[in-house]
Design brief:
alpha/beta, seven-stranded mixed sheet, two-stranded antiparallel ribbon, disordered N terminus
Length: 377
């Protein structure tokens, strides 16, 4: 009879129990997947309603962003299998961590957070420039109105990366000094290099000394006169890094100067009664992975050894160790943001450059973390 099961051919009770368990597990998985898709849909819908469409954000790559520098685009520079492997590793790392970028931009510019505008002053060398590029390029690739205005004054000539084929020597995608970006809601981002610049008129070599003098005289700091766009008010966030143009005792002296002449007095000033002090963020200097005993660039050793690739990892970052010893959150900085990159050597631009990372890559994730702490308050 249709629909009936003869008792003579009934399966064992254990088999029935196993089938039930499988059916229950399948049903649970189906509902779990449906719930995840529902949550993703609602998140994307909410983001869409606020003008941020994460579902369309596939990131930037190979100069797809108009603010990229060619010397940091490993996809653009690649000429060999080793180059392609470096590009692939960096690209995969970026895409695997794209959710970190999404969360940071949502916190900064999603919902009603974009109404909390910040004026951010980034001072450093080419390593800080990479963080600026990461922030504006990821904002650009979100395909919406996050970016209102960006000024990146490309130089007519810019030095090439030794060991790489140089096809862009000036103009778009070559290089820039000071640059500015205005985001939705009025958030401003201004980068001014203290080293690694091309033109004294668009950089500020002695930025630390100026900041220290301003603090002594007024108890506050200003953007100075070298920003690409005029700032719309006082500095809300000061993001600083000494960089790789100093080493040994000179590096220690620069970090110590920032800690004792800028960070500490700003956090303990009694002169500034007009404006609240800026949030002070120091980003540790990225790890170098040259083929030297400690990974730090040494011209004679690198030249003598003839190494064209970077070490995969090093045991420590001497510069970051100094920074962590001198800088203390709550004392002379609000946030000490660690690159945490001892094992990221394979993602450097490579050949003669084991200081800068391929972009997109490590700088994008660090920049997202930077944005995250800026809008955490």
């Amino acid at each position: 009879m249709v629909g009936l099961v003869s008792s003579q051919h009934s399966p064992p009770s254990k088999f029935i129990s196993l089938n039930r368990q499988i059916i229950v597990a399948v049903i649970f998985c189906v509902f779990a997947i449906a719930n995840v898709r529902k949550q993703n849909f609602l998140s994307n819908l909410e983001a869409y309603e606020e003008g941020i469409v994460f579902s369309n954000h596939v990131g930037y790559f190979n100069l797809s962003c108009p603010f990229e520098m060619a010397k940091f685009s490993c996809a653009f520079l690649e000429r060999s299998d080793a180059d392609r492997a470096r590009t692939t590793t960096s690209r995969d790392y970026y895409f695997e961590n794209l959710n970190v970028v999404h969360r940071a931009f949502w916190k900064a510019f999603g919902s009603k957070n974009h109404l909390r505008k910040k004026r951010i002053f980034m001072i450093g060398d080419s390593l800080t420039r990479q963080l600026f590029i990461a922030l504006v390029c990821n904002a650009f690739e979100l395909h919406n109105a996050i970016l209102d205005h960006v000024v990146v004054p490309w130089k007519d000539s810019w030095p090439c990366v030794s060991g790489h084929a140089c096809t862009i020597r000036g103009g778009n995608h070559s290089g820039f000094d000071a640059a500015s970006a205005i985001f939705r809601g009025g958030t401003e981002l201004h980068f001014v290099p203290h080293h690694g610049w091309r033109d004294r008129n668009t950089s500020e070599e002695h930025a630390l000394e100026r900041l220290s003098e301003e603090i002594r005289n007024t108890g506050m700091v200003t953007f100075g006169k070298k920003t690409a766009l005029p700032p719309g008010g006082p500095v809300d966030v000061l993001a600083y890094n000494v960089g790789v143009h100093f080493d040994g005792q000179n590096f220690r002296d620069e970090v110590d100067f920032f800690a004792n002449k800028v960070g500490f007095p700003l956090m303990n000033n009694e002169l500034n009664n007009t404006h609240s002090r800026p949030q002070i963020i120091y980003t540790t200097t990225p790890t170098q992975h040259f083929h030297t005993p400690n990974g730090v660039f040494n011209k004679e050793i690198v030249k003598k050894g003839g190494f064209w690739n970077c070490m995969d990892r090093v045991e420590s970052n001497p510069r970051a160790d100094v920074e962590k010893k001198i800088l203390s959150p709550g004392v002379n900085v609000d946030v000490l943001l660690d690159y945490d990159d001892l094992d990221k050597g394979v993602m450097h631009v490579g050949k003669s450059d084991c200081s800068h990372y391929c972009m997109p890559g490590v700088p994008d994730i660090v920049a997202a973390r930077l944005l995250d702490v800026i809008f955490a308050t």
